[in-house]
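Trying the structure run again after the queue cleared.
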Amino acid sequence: GAHYIVQSTPLFAPLIWGDEAYVNAVDYTSTWCTQMTGSMRFFRVIEGVALGPVAPTSVNISSVQLTPGGPQLTWYAPISSTFHVEWTDTLFPPNWVQVAAPVTSVNGIFIFNDDGIVTAPLGGIRFYRISQP
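Done. Tokens:
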């Protein structure tokens, strides 16, 4: 995830930034709120470095759409993530097959299109799951 530093300065003072708080975005987005105390009224957020390991978050497939090219899976995760897509035609018993190429993203939106070339042939029923290496 991304790492940020939130700094504040008093209302009627030179712009000397102090009172730092550290925020780790463990997902593709984050929200942080501060209590307005004392005279601190101006805030800025700057990109920082991690102070320690960031806890992983669980990731689920957000949508599956049937496109003219085949099923399209979409999910959201930190941009530094890498995923493997696995598929099976049956769950009793499942025979999970990993797609060779890992899925990455530059904006936190991960998309996998199953055109049937790598997972050939596309059948009537297909189950998918994602995993991280």
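Strands lie at 3-10, 18-24, 40-47, 63-67, 70-76, 84-88, 97-98, 109-113, 127-131. Worth checking whether this holds up in the mutant runs.
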